[in-house]
Specification:
Layout: H1 2-8, H2 11-18, H3 21-43, H4 52-60, H5 64-92, H6 96-111, H7 114-124, H8 128-153, H9 157-164, H10 170-206, H11 213-222, H12 226-254
Helix pairs in contact: 4-12, 5-8, 5-10, 5-11, 6-8, 7-8, 8-10, 10-11, 10-12, 11-12
Length: 260
Amino acid sequence: MTDVVQDRFSPGRKLSKLLPRETVAGIIAIAALALAWHLASIYGPSYAFPSWGRIARAFIAIPLYDVGITIARLALTMLLSFVIGIIFSTLVFERPTVEALLLPLVKLLMAVPAVCWVIFAILWFKGVELRIFFVMCITCTPVFIIDSLDAMKGVPLDLRQMVRSFRPDPVRYYTKLVFPCIVPNILTSWKINLTLAVRVVTIAELVGAVSGIGHGLVMAQEMFSIAEVFAWTVVLVLILLAMQGLVNVIERRTLHWRTA
């Protein structure tokens, strides 16, 4: 009996309740990577593996203006891509002929690599901001279209027929039935698309931009500063985690009924 009580109140069991096993494993993996990098900075070439002190100084010196510009570009293009995707899916939904004509073009856009769109943007547009805007939208919008359209098709047919029996107008039909039903899929699409968008905006900023994280990476590469490259990479990861965390907060508040 005493052993059971001691096991129940042991520090290991208390820790397992506070931190899930996956979180503990992730912390251990990150700590091991940090230790390996530290050892490489001591015994390896310093130009290839800068010390954590140099990386920290480079991180502190990062211009907040460039970080803010990249975040603004991400937010604006993602919102616009989402709106275009929802509008397109709404117009195509329950119109098989229109879907058969337009959906192959959307899938074709998804098959084109982001690097190709960057080259097209350089050849087509003169303004740098317009180039970045084009590359981001043409890359992210098809993902929202495919995911939202598939989610709309997942709304049960008998439920759609029942709602239509009340003869609602199109606005009420979509706002009362279709859009609420696809919220979980849309939030998942946002999480996936954010990962893609963070990579694409960096590629778009690498060519011709005079501000943003991509421009900072170009400057770090020209100065052969791996510490700065590492610092900019950490910033990108933090931006992605922060945006995905925001989506998670919205998901918990919007879909609180799933855990009720």
